[in-house]
Specification:
About 25% of the residues lie in helices and about 30% in strands. The chain starts with a helix and ends in a 7-residue tail after the last strand. The protein is built from 3 helices and 4 strands, in the order αβαβαββ. The radius of gyration is 16 Å and the shape is globular. The mean pLDDT is about 85. The protein is α+β, with helices and mostly antiparallel strands. The protein has a 4-stranded mixed sheet. The longest helix has 13 residues, at about 80-95. Strand 1 (about 45), helix 2 and strand 2 form a beta-alpha-beta unit. The chain has 2 domains: about 1-25, no CATH class; about 45-135, Rossmann fold (3-Layer(aba) Sandwich).
Length: about 140
Amino acid sequence: MDAIKVLKGNVKDLDLEAVILPVCADINRFEISAQIFPKELNITTIMNPPFGVQKKTADRFFLQKAFAFSDVVYSIHLANEKVHNFISKFVSSKNWNINYILPFNLVLERSFPFHTKKTKKVAVNVYRFIKNKKNKKI
């Protein structure tokens, strides 16, 4: 929640409230449709889904939701070959492409009972996904 507070403060300070809408929601209850937005509006989603360590492919549902209404999606995933192969196949099956990958060392603070250390450095990739041209809004 602290990240959302910081983001909202930055959006307000930069006078971007008309173009940036920070949302923090339960993904199981989050519903939005691209059809409610003007056709010329491009929607970018930035998310940090679960990595799927505790529950395999937990990130899949987050990606599907974002792909349903976004034009561009930035998403953080573990940096390893198995995850990359899964992500590549999954986004391709949804008519999306990986446009860019930014390797990054993320510092996680203990926030769940299964976290055993106060902080842990995790190698991640920040992916930028874009729709295939044939998948664009009409």
